Amino acid sequence: MIRTIKPKNARSKRALAKKEAKLVENTKSALFVPGSSGSKVLHDSMVDLMAIKKPFAKKFSKKNDIRPFEDYSELEFFSEKNDSSIIVFSSHNKKRPNNLIISRFFNYKVYDMIELTILNYKLLQDFKKVTFTIGLKPMFVFNGPLFDSHPVYMHLKSLFMDLYRGEETDLQDAAGLQYIIALSAGELSESNINNDINDNNNKNLPNLHFRVYKLKTFRSGQKLPRVEIDEIGPRFDFKIGRRITPSEEVEKQAMERPKQLQAKTKKNVSTDFMGDKVAQIHMGKQDLGKLQTRKMKGLKARYDQDSDFDEENDQDFGEGYEDAMESDIEYDAPQSKKQKV
To answer: What is the pTM assigned to this prediction?
Structure first.
């Protein structure tokens, strides 16, 4: 491990400040390390993969005798020294030819690792000279249900998104969406459905297809343009090999978000499955007798039809009406004094 040295000048102090923990971490940089034995295929493949990752990428020129699945202490040293959270290591031998080993790091310790064997490839130089601006964020497309259900492909999905995620920003510009990284996988065979998915023997798993496309827009005569895609490379078909998964404690610690970035929950306020905000309101007991309902002059009590009818009946029927109602005696109402002629 690298010794922690107290900074002696402002330059070293700034360098150490960049490596300290932050609320919003820096963009993940990738380190491409060649192994002790390699091939032209691995060299060209790493150059093309690094071209997509630029400017957050660095490549070693010297070969390194490392066996990542046996001892990854040297990879941890490279990660801490170069402040890289992702390392792509190439190895080539008779038993496992043209291998790329992608590993992620947490606190400069190996978090997870996966081995991919290059079966078929087509490099950038074999495509048309169509490129895109360096530093743009790509769009991702994952074709196949395995990326949402199978742990191995969910692991690959997370790994490639971390590798080519790019710089996090709140600015959104449609002109910056210029290329797509597409990962595809076929259906899982029935013989491998019941196998142990955590086993390192992944011979029966479908191959992983890596493609890169350039977006082209044309006038369509409508508000939205017509979009077409053109493959610009590189193109790889990977066979999935060995892998190392993180423990539950390390994974929980790596996924933990700082309290300052966590969304503050409001009491009695939630969001339903449609995205609408729903709130619960607590009110005291209401006295409906004191409820203000009359807002105009015509609704006052003296203008009510029922009260006017009762007053007229009391005036016309006279004093004997109430006694007759109590004794159930027929009562003849006196004629009104005002009669129409």
So the answer is: 0.72
